[in-house]
Design a protein that fits this description.
The protein has about 450 residues and is α+β, with helices and mostly antiparallel strands. About 35% of the residues lie in helices and about 15% in strands. It has a 5-stranded antiparallel sheet with strand order 4-3-6-5-7. It has a 4-stranded antiparallel sheet with strand order 11-12-13-14, covered by helices on one side. A 3-stranded mixed sheet has the order 8-9-10, with helices on both faces. Helix 3 packs antiparallel against helix 4. It is flat. The protein starts with 9 loop residues before the first strand and ends with a helix.
Length: about 450
Amino acid sequence: MGCGSGACGTKNGTPGGCQNHGSCSSGGCNRMNVHDWLANLPFSDPESNCRVMEVSFNNGSRKDFFRNTSSQFFEKGDMVAVEGISGYDVGMVNMTGELVRLQMKKRNVDEKNPDMKKVLRRANETDLSKMKESKAREAGMLIRSRAISRQLNLEMKMAEVEIQADGRKATYFYIADDRVDFRELIKLYASEFKVKVEMRQIGARQEAGKVGGIGSCGRELCCSSWLTDFKSVNTNAARYQNLSINQTKLSGQCGRLKCCLNYELDTYLDALQHFPENCDVLEMEKSRAFLAKKDIFNNLMWYTLPDSTKQYPLTLERVRKIKSLNQQGIRPADLEPVEVVSNKPKEIEPVYADVVGQISLKSLEKTSRKRREQERNQQQAKRGEQRGNGQGGNNQNRGNQPNKGGQNQQRQQQQKGNQQNGNRPPQNRGPQRPPQNRGGQQQGQQRGQQNPNKNDGANK
């Protein structure tokens, strides 16, 4: 996965945190990433260390081996300038150390080959800027090269164009079913683009690895992430694994059968060795039984009858017994199938009921109860305070009030005096407002009522 997707904190297309100008040592920018798990292990003989490095070009789509003849030390992710055809090329160090020897042994490359190209130097800013200019021309050259090949009516498909870092050489990767005479095409390309032309034929699977993408499994394509050896795949691999022969489901993005069909094929072949052979058809009393599939996990063979679509599972011992009876000319009456019991727990279907109005949320009930209790406690506290204040005020008023007996006697004397003078008793007109304090008038009246003798003396 490239750093352009934002997985390693990119900024303007350059990985954040690494100083490799678009290439990170973690392998995030490299398509065919390799982890050097021997990098931190010390060696007893440093002189015997491998002096060959594996360098990747074009984001890992192409790799090659180069010899380090200088005394410089290069690590994974360093950009280096290496020998090219009539010039130099710039690539990223993909692997160093003892793992390179294992990789060379896998590809049948001699470590002591004198024709092996060399590493020139560490790439500087001039080399990197020149490489960016050359890579910017690839898209336009690819479109123009396809148009030229179409004009010449050549049955080929131009898949990719890779330009060397110094811009002196261009490699064209094409796909064709038959041999193509592209001698005239090379002349047109050389005169059009002013470069040295090299033509390489690739297959559909190599093209898918160069383009990249996501497979039906949801992961990155194997051919663009780690797979380098492409083996032939046929439909027998699907038949051994009891897969339906559906071309649309079994084919990948390249249009060929998926490479992952070979991953588990050896396991199926080892398990099928215990199954009886030549048991595709069993002779029964009424009709024939035809083999539908083989279950290597439960050691069962499933058969079908022509008069029904039901499949009957038989054990391996029962199949061998029926086959031996058929060889003796005996046709059994019943297949005697086995009851297959699945270990998976049965899912209980939930019973739905109309519970509208019966649903209670305990959390909400708890909060509502707490609020109600708090409100009740607050109301009770207010009532207690009001009662305490009311009782204290009444006691004070009672202490300030005169004696009721004396008040009643005064009222009776006033009523008798009014009757003698011919005055009517005052009518009860409801509660009257208390007299307002209007200065010294009320005080004077009170003083006159308190000392009636003084007024009598003055009148006399």
